[in-house]
């Protein structure tokens, strides 16, 4: 008489496969849970907007390191909302419009706070550089929008939104009084942004002219 082999019980992984969850499985499950949640792209955009307002207030209070943290987190949310919109299918035309509008407001508010800081310290040259940065940043965005309205893709240029965020984040985190090192990067960061945004504007103008010249008379 043979003994009956004990019944083996095994719990099937949540991914429906007889193997442990991989990192890809975890990401897929997390993505599905996120998509199924009530989170909307507009909520992410508005949260990023609020954090940028907090960053501006902290700059005015001379809390530059905390301002840098708030600016970085808020900017990351601004970059994530578009990706989440595409991934979740929850995006709307108004959401895309709101996202772009808030991005411009956020950049302008933070730069205005920095200009106020320089003005309080009597640094007129730095204030002028901030003004050029605002104009250049808006022109970088405007030239892309105008080009795309003409049917020309225009993502060229060195001073993309991501690059500007990185430069300004470093400037805030390593600003005078931030407590990180004995050097000050906020003013050099503003000078770099002013130069790069103006240069990028000309890059995009030249790119659009070249693209349009290929399909019709040169403008």
Characterization of this structure:
This protein is 71% helix and 0% strand. With 219 residues, it is mainly α. It has a single domain (38-215), classed as Four Helix Bundle (Hemerythrin (Met), subunit A). α3 packs antiparallel against α4 (93-120), α4 (93-120) runs antiparallel to α5 and α5 runs parallel beside α7 (186-215). Mean pLDDT is 83; it is low at 5-13.
Provide keyphrases for this structure:
71% helix, 219 residues, mainly alpha, Four Helix Bundle (Hemerythrin (Met), subunit A)
Number of strands: 0
How much of the sequence is in beta strands?
under 5%
- Kindly report the CATH topology: Four Helix Bundle (Hemerythrin (Met), subunit A)
The count of helical stretches stands at 7
Specify the biggest β-sheet: none
Number of domains: 1
Coarse shape: globular
CATH superfamily: CDP-alcohol phosphotransferase transmembrane (TM) domain
Q: pLDDT under 50 segments (min length 5)? A: 5-13
Distance between the termini: 96 Å
Mean pLDDT equals 83
Specify Rg, calculated over alpha carbons: 24 Å
What's the SSE pattern? HHHHHHH
Secondary-structure-derived class: mainly alpha
């Amino acid at each position: 008489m043979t003994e009956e082999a004990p019944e083996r019980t095994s719990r099937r992984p949540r991914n429906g496969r007889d193997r442990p969850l991989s990192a890809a499985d975890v990401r897929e499950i997390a993505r599905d849970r996120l998509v199924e949640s009530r989170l909307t792209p507009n909520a992410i955009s508005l949260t990023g907007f609020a954090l940028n307002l907090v960053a501006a207030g902290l700059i005015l209070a001379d809390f530059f390191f905390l301002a840098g943290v708030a600016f970085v987190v808020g900017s990351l949310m601004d970059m994530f909302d578009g990706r989440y919109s595409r991934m979740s299918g929850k995006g709307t035309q108004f959401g895309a419009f709101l996202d772009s509008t808030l991005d411009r407001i956020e950049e302008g508010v933070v730069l205005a706070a920095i200009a106020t800081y320089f003005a309080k310290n009597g640094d007129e040259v730095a204030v002028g550089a901030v003004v050029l940065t605002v104009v250049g940043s808006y022109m970088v965005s405007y030239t892309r929008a105008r080009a795309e309205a003409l049917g020309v893709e225009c993502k060229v240029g060195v001073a993309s939104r991501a690059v500007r965020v990185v430069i300004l984040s470093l400037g805030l985190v390593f600003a005078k009084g931030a407590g990180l090192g004995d050097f000050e990067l906020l003013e050099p960061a503003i000078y770099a942004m002013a130069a790069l945004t103006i240069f990028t504007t000309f890059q995009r103008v030249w790119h659009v002219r070249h693209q349009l010249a290929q399909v019709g008379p040169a403008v």
